[in-house]
Amino acid sequence: METINAIGRRKASVARVYLKKGTGAISINGKTLKEYFPQIHIQTKVHEPIETLGLENGYDLNVNVKGGGYKGQAEAIRMGISRALVKLDENYKPALKEKKLLTRDAREVERKNTVNLRQERASSSASVNTLIQFILQQSYRKRY
User: Distances from the Cα of 31 to the Cαs of 15, 37, 132, in angstroms?
Assistant: First the structure.
């Protein structure tokens, strides 16, 4: 069996997954799964498509992932593994689709709007100026 590759994406993360027959080893950016993701709840996210199909010791995975945070990376890897398994055998698709492992979550971080930032800055500086004027008036009244 040759190597099967697939791509998974989530937020700013992109994962390239290479699947081949083996013992169940998972390598992410040259590290083991436990070294790269020490949190157990993140490890289970990565294992989810493999456990869904009951293929724990059937295939070796080599993953290159970049961008985003650790959760986005884990979800990108999960999607890449799911896609690679579907490329391997089309019969795996209904079980993975049922758990929504093949659905791309397209939500991205919204950009900051500079108009709103300017308005916030103007309103906060206006309130500071009002406060300064009030304090100066109070101190002037006390003197005279």
Answer: 14, 9, 57
Residues 87 and 135 in one domain: no
Cα-based angle 63, 79, 41 (whole degrees, multiple of 5)? 80
CA–CA separation, 109 vs 40, rounded Å?
Answer: 26
**Global pTM?**
0.76
Q: Is residue 20 part of a domain?
A: yes
Which is nearest to 7 in space by CA: 107, 81, 58?
81
b/e burial code for range 25-52 (CB count within 10 A of at least 16 → b): ebbbeeeebeebbeeeebbebbbbbbeb
Measured distance CA(39)–CA(130) in Å, rounded: 50
Count, residues in the chain: 144
Answer yes or no: is 103 within a domain. no
**Looking at residue 57, what DSSP letter applies?**
T
Q: Which tens digit of pLDDT belongs to each residue from 70-105?
A: 899 999 999 999 999 999 889 989 988 898 988 888
